[in-house]
Specification:
The protein has helices at about 60-70, 75-95, 100-115, 130-140, 150-160, 165-170, 170-190, 195-210, 215-230, 240-250. By secondary structure, the protein is mostly helical.
Length: about 260
């Protein structure tokens, strides 16, 4: 048991850990000469399953993971899994409704594992990647007869996960996803104040299995790559626009996008 009275989970692999050979070249054929990393990939196929102690062993969860693992860049897939793990930790600590029933847990998993699915070419439509991803997640949920309320909850959580100050207050699921994303990008101490040992344990556990693999650069470049071809995907006052403007200001920059 952890100090909060919640049994500590044992994080089994959702699929085998990713090897160096699983990763895109940082200069894929046909990609802009700026050195940006490709966002989606269709050649990666995770062969693992979803054991019950790692994620919901349900048809919705399995289908969501199949979609994520067959299309997301491996770095973004790892990030999405870590986001789910952090979200579950937050949900345990707050006695969240999203751990109190299997149906709600499915929504939490789907929102986390698919929150960046809009970065892949399959869902590279005219809207910003968050909205395209939210639409894709809802389409998947509809295959399983999800209610309008549940579908909307997941849509909001994904569509607003880059919207600070809004995601944290609009719905409980959006708050969980947003805070879990922030935790994976280095703000974990804000949510576990005064618990440095727990912070170290969680980060070490999650990142030893699902390595970071330059997620900041891969994700930022994925969003910019879409905006280069369709500037309308980076509307003013959005996170994609921050990244796109930073790229336009220094298109030869090779590191993590300065607007990340």
């Amino acid at each position: 048991m952890c100090q909060h009275g919640v049994a500590t989970r044992h994080y089994a692999f959702l699929s085998p850990p990713l090897k160096d050979s699983d990763f895109f070249s940082m200069s894929p054929q046909g990609f802009p000469s700026s050195g940006l990393a490709q966002g989606g990939r269709e050649d990666f196929n995770a062969t693992g399953t979803l054991p019950a102690d790692a994620a919901p062993a349900t048809p919705i969860a399995k289908k969501a993971f199949e979609l994520a693992s067959s299309t997301l860049h491996p770095s973004i897939l790892n990030h999405s899994i870590r986001v789910y793990q952090y979200a579950e930790e937050l949900a345990q600590r707050s006695d969240s409704i999203f751990l109190q029933s299997q149906g709600k847990h499915d929504l939490l998993f789907a929102a986390c594992i698919l929150h960046d699915i809009g970065t892949v070419s399959q869902y590279d439509g005219p809207q910003r990647f968050e909205v395209e991803g939210a639409d894709a997640a809802v389409a998947l949920l509809r295959e399983f007869g999800a209610s309008d309320e549940d579908a909307h909850e997941v849509w909001v959580a994904i569509a607003l996960h880059t919207s600070p100050g809004i995601a944290e207050r609009i719905t409980p699921l959006a708050k969980l996803v947003r805070e879990a994303v922030l935790m994976d990008f280095g703000r974990i101490n804000e949510f576990f104040p005064g618990e440095p040992d727990e912070v170290t344990r969680l980060r070490a556990t999650f990142e030893s299995i699902w390595e970071r693999r330059d997620i900041e650069q891969v994700l930022g470049d994925s969003v910019v790559h879409q905006a280069i071809r369709r500037p309308g995907k980076a509307p003013a006052a959005s996170w994609p626009n921050n990244l796109y403007r930073a790229h336009l200001a220094d298109p030869e920059w090779k590191g993590v996008n300065k607007g990340f």
